[in-house]
Amino acid sequence: DVSQDHCLSFSCYPFNDCVDYIRARSHDSGQISSYEKLCRSVAMKWPKDGRLWAELINANGAHTVTMSPPYLRTTEQVLDLSGHVALGKNALHVYQLRDHADFVFTLNIHTPVPSQLRELQDRREHDASWKAFLRSLSTFEFPEFPWSKKVAMVQTGLTLK
């Protein structure tokens, strides 16, 4: 059960949506809402101009991720970095070719979201299927022949010179 493990994800929110959310909550209750509530309430949106990417560097090497446009297949729209994190020092460098001050970027440590749990389950099922396929290649079964009588080798008596 990995539902209580921790994941590392990168998220992106429109700056104005975050400001509007905070202002609305501070007027309603007199206090600013928590970061967790903000993340659940403001829809994620990534830049689509192709000018934003990140590089995670650690003992396993460097892993580069394009963030705009985001190639995310999940409904949560988080960029999961968990599979690329290694024990020890991890450095995340974000590169941009334009001003992205209209976005708020966050690095989050959290329990797995539903799409991450589904992806893990799919990966485990695929691995099990692949292992079963490899096992099937190492097993040979003699086929059943459709002949009703036993067949014997017949010697013709011809001699080749």
Structural descriptors:
alpha+beta; 3-stranded antiparallel sheet; 24% strand
Poorly predicted regions are none
Looking at the structure, what is the overall shape? elongated
Mean pLDDT: 81
Major beta sheet summary: 3 strands, antiparallel
The helix/strand series, from N terminus to C terminus, equals EHHEEEEEH
What's the multimeric state?
single chain
User: What would you call the structural class?
Assistant: alpha+beta
Fraction of residues in helix: 25-40%
Total helices: the number is 3
Task: Walk me through the topology.
Layout: E1 7-14, H1 15-29, H2 35-41, E2 52-58, E3 61-68, E4 79-80, E5 91-96, E6 103-110, H3 114-137
Antiparallel strand pairs: 1-4, 1-6, 2-3, 2-5
Task: Describe the 3D structure.
- This protein is α+β, with helices and mostly antiparallel strands and 161 residues long.
- It has a domain at 10-107.
- The chain has three helices and six strands; from the N terminus they run βααβββββα.
- Strands 4-1-6 form a three-stranded antiparallel beta sheet. A three-stranded antiparallel beta sheet has the order 3-2-5, with no helix packed on it.
Summarize the structure.
The chain is of the alpha+beta class.
